[in-house]
Amino acid sequence: MARVIAEREDVIPMLAEVFRTYGFEGASLARISEGTKLGKGSIYHFFPGGKEEMAEVVLAQVDEWFQRNVFESLNERADPAEGITAMFDDVGRYFMSGRRVCLVGVFALGNERDRFATRVRDYFSAWIDALSAALVRAGRKPKEAKALAEEVVGGIQGALVLARAFDRTDVFTETLDRLRERLLAN
Amino acid sequence: MARVIAEREDVIPMLAEVFRTYGFEGASLARISEGTKLGKGSIYHFFPGGKEEMAEVVLAQVDEWFQRNVFESLNERADPAEGITAMFDDVGRYFMSGRRVCLVGVFALGNERDRFATRVRDYFSAWIDALSAALVRAGRKPKEAKALAEEVVGGIQGALVLARAFDRTDVFTETLDRLRERLLAN
DNA sequence: GTCTATAGAGTGATAGAC
DNA sequence: GTCTATCACTCTATAGAC
């Protein structure tokens, strides 16, 4: 009995998948229990704050992942075009070519936005700022860079909606291609 | 008592607002009852099929509204540019400059997508097809028109996400302006 | 003995259905 | 209003690592 290892860190990705699939309201403890293969006791042992804490931790982890894998690599390369290309590759892989939704985007649209307002805002701010900085380094004017970055981040969110609506990954991948070309042109 | 007028038709917009605010899973009967000012008995009198029927009817009504007010006016005008401009105006007003979310978009991202798959797909198809047809009449090649239409409809959905995330309507209205310019240019 | 991860019965409240 | 199922959550009891 008991002691089947498992640490809080290992649970977070499974938790994230449950929230992504069912949303915050739809993620019942029964579904969370099923998705994490953990009893209610274990779940509340790891997250005494309940669902709110679970969502908070999941959002923090998503944020950290993007910070490390997307935003940083955007600006640590000598050639900004390389960083931008890498970003699109990472994003395409992360969202599984449109099969996987953006948890933060889902939260932004729902009424849970207000509860996690700071996390939601910061995620998109960080993304837009990182991309914008890379575009400035690539020679764009700051204002133009900001507008382009917003267009790209918004375009990706919209492409996720359409890809899910049509259940077709090519809608997503083609949008990524188009947006990348637009950034690297000129 | 009873007989406070109220017909099924009058309830649908209020129902739509509840689903928009809380999502399908989050729209509890208590919230629906509060949002429609109707007792549970009345609700089930109008919608014997329960929440599923309510969502179905709301989606049908959204679809019809867009069909009449957006898609038709797109192509019944002599000048396609006029129709396109009218579409952006209608969309801006409908989504209250980004304060109001797209119910179909929210459903597309959630796990309720599968339950309402046809409705979700048809809504976006109809929109893209109508816009695409107007662009062809404006002189675009069919393939180019389709790609542009997808870009615009996706871009609008993404702009709704960002507008909610930042709680700023200008993110939405500026995206509408930019997308409109792109369609009317050239 | 103590600490941590586990399972799950049991709580009142609220869910959707009728 | 009344039904049962399920909700988020609490609590007790456990097993094994130190």
Total helical segments of chain A: 9
CATH fold field value of chain A? Tetracycline Repressor, domain 2
Mean pLDDT of chain A: 94
User: Tell me, what is the CATH class of chain A?
Assistant: Mainly Alpha
Given helix and strand content, the structural type of chain A is: mainly alpha
* Gross morphology of chain A: elongated
Helical coverage of chain A, percent range: over 70%
| Poorly predicted runs of chain A | none
List SSEs of chain A in N-to-C order. HHHHHHHHH
Percentage of residues in DSSP E strands of chain A = under 5%
- Alpha-carbon distance between the termini of chain A? 63 Å
Main interface by residue count: A-B, 41 and 42 residues
Main sheet record of chain A? none
Proper CATH architecture of chain A? Orthogonal Bundle
Q: Whole-number radius of gyration of chain A?
A: 18 Å
User: How many individual domains of chain A?
Assistant: 1
Number of strands of chain A: 0
